[in-house]
Amino acid sequence: MDIDQSITLRLKNSNQSHLLSYWDQLDHEQRAILLRDINSIDLERITEAFDEIKDQLIETSTDKNEHGETIDQLMEPIPEHLTGSVDKTSKEQLETYRREGLKAIAEGSVCVLLLAGGQGTRLGVDYPKGMYDVGLPSKKSLYHIQAERIRRLEQLANEEFNTKKATIPWFIMTSEHTRQSTEDYFIEHDYFGLKPQNVIFFEQHTLPALDFQGKILLDDKHKLTKAADGNGGLYRALKTRGMLSEMEKRDIKYVHVYCVDNILVRVADPVFIGFCLDKKAECAAKVVKKTFPDEAVGVICKVRDHFQVVEYSEISEKTAQKTKSDDSGDLLFNAGNICNHFFTFDFLRDVCQNHENKLCFHIAKKKIPSIGTDGKRINKPTEINGIKLEKFVFDVFSCAKNFFVWEARRDDEFSPLKNGSGTKDTAVTCRRDLMLQHVRWLQAAGAILPPNTSKQIILADKFHDNDSNSNGIFVEISPLISYAGENLEFTKGQILQLPLKMEMK
């Protein structure tokens, strides 16, 4: 197989001629794979992207702009009139928001969009994170829990507005590595009771990894390294995979975007949606308060005339510890980003069609398995040897004219699954936080639980990392029974015993 001269010229003009270094060592099939990989990427786009991020390779959080200012000095908190909070809103107003959100759902105007491209590598598994079982008595995965929340919410909307039209389409963005296994998993479990036509899978794009000179790394002599283009790759994928057209065909007006790993996520939260509709927001973010000044979480703030997420590594200790001038004692920069966003469809379409190419790339310096200078593959590099290019979903905040922030309670809405072991963001903490929430729901409904039930759950999970069933101390309520604590009045005055597992019959 000969090389097309146009390919040779393209590679030369993009400073990527090294991709053909091992051509003479490849068989016919391997050559075909390499050419397919080369033809699948936009070399000019890669060159432009590397030119954009060159400065990031040497910048630090203390680097100054042309005015001699650091981002740390430019940060301002979100103005109060652009924020809302579940703790500072009356029950009556929360109910108004809830009904407005449910009404939009009942009209079929709301869809949810799940960012599910991540594998469970840090959890020690080789399958998508959404399929992970955190050890609940029911053995439900993250996907299963979220699917049942969608079903319950559709039921609530139908009951509230005496209709049968409530449908919440579930758009699921996978990656090259998670697409097939995710689809197979949903088929195997009959879509967890959802209609298959309302679960729409699409795949984000990939970009090759680069060395520090901008050259594409080879995963093998006949393969390019490829990695997903970050959760901000959502906007390109929506445009190129036909998802915008699909949403338009379904008359979607409002989109809730969230990340797969939060076991407490309130999918298509009607209160959040109602708040956004009330404020006429075109873009909004749900946040939680930081637990301490140096918590490793980005914060949403104002920088000059637009809103953005500033990563914790960019904030000085002095700025992180600033508190508000009122008597609350709250941190000044307290809006912890949890990847939970609201967009109007019109805003989302405008971003995809007119702003996606302008969103900047971010870099992640990594130890990337690849072919070394000696032609041998380095499976486990001992040092960082390259970069992956990513875009972030929240970078579109700066495009919004009407941007708002809604503060939720952490213990009700945020418990991410990040780590396979340790004390933070593990299967143990996710399982514990979900059970403690269910205890609070039952107590609020008037149920009588054994003394110190919450403490027992905390202590039991401390010593049974992988199996909650072995200790017999658990409380689990199916999302099909209750979405956010409602529908539990039947437990009022009842004396309940542990273990307790409430499922639909």
Automatic annotation (TrEMBL):
It catalyses: N-acetyl-alpha-D-glucosamine 1-phosphate + UTP + H(+) = UDP-N-acetyl-alpha-D-glucosamine + diphosphate. Pfam families: UDPGP. Its EC number is 2.7.7.23. One of its GO terms (biological process) is UDP-N-acetylglucosamine biosynthetic process. Keywords: Nucleotidyltransferase, Transferase. GO terms for molecular function: UDP-N-acetylglucosamine diphosphorylase activity. It comes from the Eukaryota. It is an enzyme of class 2 (transferase). Pathway: Nucleotide-sugar biosynthesis; UDP-N-acetyl-alpha-D-glucosamine biosynthesis; UDP-N-acetyl-alpha-D-glucosamine from N-acetyl-alpha-D-glucosamine 1-phosphate: step 1/1. Belongs to the UDPGP type 1 family. This is UDP-N-acetylglucosamine diphosphorylase. It comes from Adineta steineri. The lineage of its organism: Eukaryota, Metazoa, Spiralia, Gnathifera, Rotifera.
